[in-house]
Automatic annotation (TrEMBL), chains A, B:
Its EC number is 1.1.1.79. Residues 109-216 form the D-isomer specific 2-hydroxyacid dehydrogenase NAD-binding domain. One of its GO terms (biological process) is photorespiration. It comes from the Eukaryota. GO terms for molecular function: glyoxylate reductase (NADPH) activity; hydroxypyruvate reductase [NAD(P)H] activity; NAD binding. It holds the Pfam family 2-Hacid_dh_C. It comes from Trifolium pratense (Red clover). Gene3D superfamilies: NAD(P)-binding Rossmann-like Domain. The keyword Ligase does not apply. This is glyoxylate reductase (NADP(+)).
Length: 216, 216
């Protein structure tokens, strides 16, 4: 296949892997139990590294690939890519922010509605034929309920926008108050939670946010 | 058991029936196979009639109840109440518009999301333990899809407002174009359908709208 070698350091969906394979000499890091072997054989031909939020390229690895032109993250996160090193060597870094924002926000609202209106339970109720013996019990409405969002980034904002369509008062918690936001800010997660009917977690998972939702 | 007689001409939920029963001498029309018997015994004491979209009070019946002060419809529809006769005799008529608008609109969006994202199927997939053998297949997003609404009344408008939060272009069909609406109007259901990814029926069921969705 092509003379350009592309190194996968993380798994991508089969379709993408196939397409890359058609166009390039595709290498998979997991085929090389020893990194030294990979570097000996291919360091001179690898021009692209494809990773994600959990696998990228550190400074040492970047230095070992003299022909490297691009490090691509197949997700929003670029935490595993040494950005300073890339900048220094003029290596492009790409990621995929916003691609999934709408989908995640859609699904958040979908799951809230499914939970409040017990859509999955009702679905089973109908499929099991229980509707013949009576109506499904009443559920509760989403519209007008107070929604608290932890993390008002791209996804949190997209969720808030959708919830507004349901006339839900929105409030949020984040590390710092967003001056440009019209939503009510709470400086603590606990305060936000106690003032919300529905609590949405839309922050990145970091050491700081790990277990942000707990018994407290 | 008060001295005021209230006549139910349609079934209401048990809780409401109980509450009415606590406060008034509650009569149920189905306990009187002969209307004449009901009238003979109670026409002098009935001061309220409670019905819904399918059962109300016609002119003859209203005339037969000299003490009637109010006809209440336990739904939006007042089709079965002779409004002219009530006006003529100073009888109040009440109904319950808007009470369920938000709920119906919420559920419409909830079902659209559940369908597109296959939430019920995914729920079964997880509950059956299939997640252990692999990810659920990809589904499709709601955001940005064109939504066509048949009937831009209270409920249609509430659905449109929610869909806007998902950045969905909205168009609609109704008997007449609504000048105040910013949504795109199609003068035919077929045209609307062929220009929509998602079609929502939000019109009353009448002879005119019966089978408005068909193979054509």
């Amino acid at each position: 296949m092509g003379s350009i070698s592309v190194l996968l350091v993380a798994k991508v969906i089969p379709y993408l892997e196939q397409e890359l394979n058609k166009r390039y000499n595709l290498l998979r890091i997991w085929d090389f139990p020893q990194k030294s072997q990979l570097l000996t054989q291919h360091s001179a031909s690898i021009r692209a590294v494809v990773g994600n939020a959990s696998a990228g390229a550190d400074a040492e690895f970047i230095d070992a690939l003299p022909k490297l032109e691009i490090v691509s993250s197949y997700s929003v996160g670029v935490d595993m890519i040494d950005l300073n090193k890339c900048k220094e060597k003029g290596i492009r870094v790409t990621n995929t922010p916003d691609v999934l924002t709408d989908d995640v926000a859609d699904l958040a609202i979908g799951l809230i509605l499914a939970l409040l209106r017990r859509i999955c339970e009702s679905d089973r109720y109908v499929r099991n034929g229980n509707w013949k013996s009576g109506d499904y019990k009443l559920t509760t409405k989403f519209s007008g309920k107070t929604v608290g969002i932890i993390g008002l980034g791209r996804i949190g904002t997209a969720i808030a926008k959708r919830a507004e369509g349901f006339n839900c008062p929105i409030s949020y918690f984040s590390r710092t108050q967003k001056q440009e936001s019209k939503y009510k800010y709470y400086p603590s997660v606990v305060e936000l939670a106690s003032n919300s009917d529905i609590l949405v977690v839309a922050c990145p998972l970091t050491e700081e946010t790990h277990h942000i939702i707990n018994r407290e």
